[in-house]
Design a protein that fits this description.
By secondary structure, this protein is of the alpha/beta class. The protein has one domain: NAD(P)-binding Rossmann-like Domain (Rossmann fold, 3-Layer(aba) Sandwich). Helix 3 packs parallel to helix 4. The two termini are 37 Å apart.
Amino acid sequence: MRVLVTGGTGVVGRMAVARLVEHGHDVTVIGRSAGIEIAGATYRQCDIVDFACVTECVQGMEGVVHLAAIPNPSKGASEAIFHANCTGTFNVYQAAANAGIKRIISASSINALGFNFGIKRFPLRYFPMDEAHPSFTTDPYSFSKQVMEEIGAYFWRRDGISSLFLRLPGVYEVTPENEAQVMSARGTARQQYQELLAMPESQRSAIIAGIITQHDNLRAARAFEVPDNFTNLRELPYARVMFGYSNFWASIDARDSAQCIEKGLLADFEGSHPVYVNDDHNAAGIPTETLVEWFYPDVPFKRPLVGTETLVSIDKVRELVGFEPEYSVSRWFGS
């Protein structure tokens, strides 16, 4: 397949391009920077907000992988995020429609729900989380992802473009060079949950209440929108636990995101579909129902969750494209 990849130099893009090239696809990558070389692929400088350039680049393509975006609310002003993520996405879809392309795989985010970065906490209706759960977006990045998904739905109705919007959580990259470091960081995070598990209930409850309050205070202060603030936030007490709580302990190996991208390009489905794509187990390494009891005691279960089964359902993407995690971090720890 002849595939255009936008934003192919980030972690998800690199893995997707490498997989597509390895499997014999003819790949062209576009990005804003000049002078990039990508093994096995053609690279062209093109900004997705430049409609004429995007129009030129989609010619002759059979599918598009759209990954280019401002990646979180700390990386740009609200108007810049909306322009890059929403106008850029509209340009990609419109150019594809004009060229007769009928298949696009786009990177959305778990943040299309609005819970993690939003400036207001809202009640969750049930677990496991799925695509039918209503969104409540109150930060520019999460809102942009919600709008992007609506753009895809519009182009399905108007031009019959079938697309997936991959609601990816935190994406981690494992290489021979960093594997020990990644495993160490994951092990440290899991140790914190084991420590919580061993505490007297009163002590644990006080710490968890403090973690939730800390996150609520960050919301109210719009701290996630402060330029490049995430390095500072990661130094807060129980930061790993806090971001686990707000992201439902979901994560994904970049190789599995690439697997899903390729399967989405080739699978036989129609329509425009947001889909959660993540590991099949939680990243905390303790029973999932225990996490809910600690952090979300008022949220009911739609169905029982077994062991460390993920709180974010991947049933829909399994059904649509046959996705199944192959590199889930849980496998490193035997859960």
